[in-house]
Amino acid sequence: MRKSSSIAIFAIELMMAAPSEAEEPIPDYSASLTAYNAGDYRTALESWHSLAEQGYAAAQCNLGYIYEQGFGVSQDYTEAMRWYEAAADQGHARAQAFLGQMYEKGMGVPQDHLEALRWYTVAARQSHAWSQSKLGDMYKSGQGVPKDFVLAHMWFNIASAIGDPMASFRRVEVEKSMTPAQIAEAKERARVCMSSGYFDCKMPGQSTP
Questions:
Q1: What is the pLDDT along the chain (209 residues), one digit of tens a residue?
Q2: Domain 1-111 belongs to what topology?
Q3: E strands along the chain, which residues?
Q4: Of residues 132, 144, 140, the one with CA closest to residue 201
Q5: How much of the chain is helix, strand and coil, in % rounded to 5?
Q6: Do 86 and 67 contact (CB within 8 A), yes or no?
Q7: Do the beta carbons of residue 33 and residue 97 sit within 8 Å?
Q8: Where are the domains of the chain?
Q9: How many angstroms separate the CA atoms of 50 and 31, rounded?
């Protein structure tokens, strides 16, 4: 089966979702991940489909990714959305991030930047660095929100601090359009945002995330 022509969004981290410490252990998860990494998508698909039907969020997220990319199956954005939503509804941050991209790109759903922003924000509040960086991109370009270089810098700074190596380059790039006072303000907003557990992350008087 063919792979999606879209760029893989998690190139800087392991694509397949592993169970978080909060999740109950998943039976035979290591074997299915080994099969996936070896290119045996059919075996991984069968295992994750069974686990996903039992409600394991990490397996649901992985299954969604397999359908999104067309690994071992016909590419099917609708099926991908179904499994991402199932995992996201359980609080799985990576699935929430994938949903954000599906809405941002209009993959299987009408393009909706506000919905993309919502899902990226939910994942960002769980310390998901890539989603935090995506919020920076949205503020930098003005997708779904007014263009705001201070908030873009803030999210790039946070994402860089917790593990997205590309975020630092994006932060440097946006600084080229900012004054020293704006950069200082962005750094202070990043400090406040992180200390609040990613909930106080907007400008004073601003209603958007």
A1: 333 333 333 333 345 555 554 565 677 778 888 999 899 999 999 999 999 999 999 999 999 999 999 998 999 999 999 999 999 999 999 999 999 999 999 999 999 999 999 999 999 999 999 999 999 999 999 999 999 999 999 999 999 999 898 999 999 999 999 999 999 999 999 999 999 999 899 855 555 45
A2: 1.25.40
A3: none
A4: 132
A5: 60, 0, 40
A6: no
A7: no
A8: 1-111, 126-195
A9: 14
